[in-house]
Amino acid sequence: MADKKEKKEFKAGLYSVVSGIIIAVILVALTIFAFTTRYTAFSPDKVAQSYTDGIVQTGDGYNAYKTTLVSKNPKIKYGDFIRRAYMVCYVNDGEDVKQADFVGTGNDKEQESIDKVYSAMYDYYVELMGTYGWDDYDSMFSKYFEKLVQVRHEVYGDDYMDTEFMFGALEANVQTYSESLTGTDRVFASDNKTVLVEETEGAYQKMFGEEQEVEAEALVEGKKKTVTETKKVYKLTTTVTETKEYSDKEVEEYVKAYKERITPVSEMGKAKVEQFGLKDDVADEMTSAFEGLNHADEITGVAEVTCEVKDQKDNVVATQTVFVVQIGNSWYVDNTSTHTTALYLAK
């Protein structure tokens, strides 16, 4: 990761103003993601390319897991896996735990508290990325949510925890980390004269950017106007350079090795249940979430795909080997054997 990252200030009060825009953008993005993923999954090349490109463009290994075996369980979605495997041990929203008096008021105290939590957790998120990274998602999730419980108590003064709060903090940090790489454009309010979010220059622009004249929205004499500005522009392109599909014998050997890797992971749920003293349905949810990670008996094909990432000058900035496995008609990245350290370019 970058040796030192500029600390970002979180302005919770802005969220309510731009929430409508954000929700609309998210809905469009999810629709596009669902459509493209549906057809990408049938091709080992496209799955590998999508996985590699997703991490490179935003440093977002969290969302990249949606194309891996972690999200393969037909009974639960990726988000539900996270909830069952890493959140249920802390969730207490159904136990009549009292929240701080300011929660839900939307007043300055609540907004300041959200700012403090998100800011503290962002610093910790960057630390986790540097220490573990998303290849070790178990450490990332486990340590992140354990810390979030502590920070919530320190800032809010209560012990309340629900999945909305937990996902909200994590996904805000993921987005902020992405923006620290890609930079951000100015965001204007509907009055076309109030700047909600200032433009920032990201790590990628500093690393790869070339100055170009581009059109941008700016505040001119108190109003939003389209102007020409000099900015650092970069482009990263991911291509597949080689694909090797394994023979039946090679698939058999690969599956055997995969089973040895995944079995200890799939059995982790039992140890975690004991660690947290979970019982009944909550214990079953956590145990089954981890058991569902083992797909050794379903894999029928394996492909080894090499992806290359180039900048706009045609320089190779990263090379990634992605192992993808076939289950039914679909292909998934085997996250147990694909190591993505090279794709986090802002080291």
Which structural traits does this protein have?
disordered N terminus, flat, 11 helices, four-stranded antiparallel sheet, two-stranded antiparallel ribbon, single chain, alpha+beta, 48% helix, 347 residues
Overview of this protein structure:
This protein is flat. Residues 1-12, 14-19 and 30-37 have low confidence and may be disordered. It has a four-stranded antiparallel sheet with strand order 5-6-7-8, with helices on both faces. Strands 1-2 form a two-stranded antiparallel ribbon. β1 (187-188) and β2 (195-197) form a beta hairpin. α5 (108-131) crosses α7. The protein contains eleven helices and eight strands. The chain has helices at 12-40, 44-58, 61-64, 78-87, 108-131, 137-156, 163-182, 203-208, 248-266, 268-276, 280-291, and strands spanning 187-188, 195-197, 210-220, 223-233, 237-245, 301-310, 316-327, 330-333. By secondary structure, it is of the alpha+beta class.
